[in-house]
Amino acid sequence: MSHFFAHMARMKLIQRWPLMHNVRTENVQEHSLQVAMVAHALAVISNQYHQAQFDPYRAATIAIYHDASEVLTGDLPTPVKYFNKDIEAEYKKIEAIAETHLLNMLPELLRPDFESLLVTSHIPPEYKALVKSADTLCAYLKCLEESRAGNDEFFTAKRRLEERLTQDPLPAVQDFIQLFIPSFRLNLDQINQML
User: Fold this and answer.
1) Alpha-carbon distance 64 to 166, whole Å?
2) Rounded-to-integer distance, Cα 98 and Cα 179, Å
C-alpha cells in the first residue's frame, strides 16, 4: 500500500499567499495546474520561436509536482522563506527531505519515473528554470486578478514580480507576456467581444 496519492490529494487543502488578504483564495493544487499549463506553453513557445528542444509534456509534468513537497512542509510565505540566506538554505534542506520522503512512499519499481519529477536535484536545470519562470508568471497572474478585484494588498508583490519577469533570461517569457497577459486585464464581456 502506498500513501503517495493520498498525500497528493491534500494539495488542495494548502492555501497559498497565507499572509495576504485574498479576495479569492488559491490552493496549491489549482496553482500547480496553472503552472503546468504555462510551463507547457513556455516550452512550446521556446521550441517554435527560439529553436529550443524542450519536451512540453515533460515540462508540464514537472510543473504539476513542483510544489508537491508542500503537502509535508506547508506553504512557507515568500517573505519568510527568503528573509535571509540562512533561512532560505535551511528551508531548501527541509524541502529536499520532504521530496525524498514523498518519493519513498512510492513502490520501488515506480520511483525512477517519479524521481526526476519530485526531487529538485534530479530535475535538469533547463527544465527547473522553465518551471520557475512559469511559477513566477502564475504568481503575477494572481496579483493581476487580485488587483482587478480592487485588492491593493498585492501591489508590492505585483511590482516585484514585474521586475523579475523583465529580467527573466528565458525569451519565451516575454513572448508569453505579449501574447497572453493583456487578456488578463479584461473582463469576460471584453474577452468575448474579441472572438
Assistant:
1) 25
2) 37
**The pLDDT value given to residue 79:** 65
Query: At 60, is the pLDDT very low, low, confident or very high (cuts 50, 70, 90)?
Result: very high
- Do residues 21 and 7 lie in contact, with contact meaning Cβ atoms separated by under 8 Å? no
Give the integer Cα–Cα distance in Å for 59 and 40.
6
Give the whole-angstrom CA distance, residue 100 versus residue 81. 20
* Alpha-carbon gap, residue 166 to 161, rounded angstroms: 8
The residue whose grid cell reads 487580485 is 146
* Within a domain: 127: yes
Q: 20 is in which domain, residue-wise?
A: 4-184
Q: Is residue 192 part of a domain?
A: no
Residues paired with residue 27 on neighbouring β-strands, in sequence order: 15
CB hemisphere CA count around 75 (13 angstroms): 21
- Is 66 inside a domain boundary? yes
The number of folded domains in the chain is 1
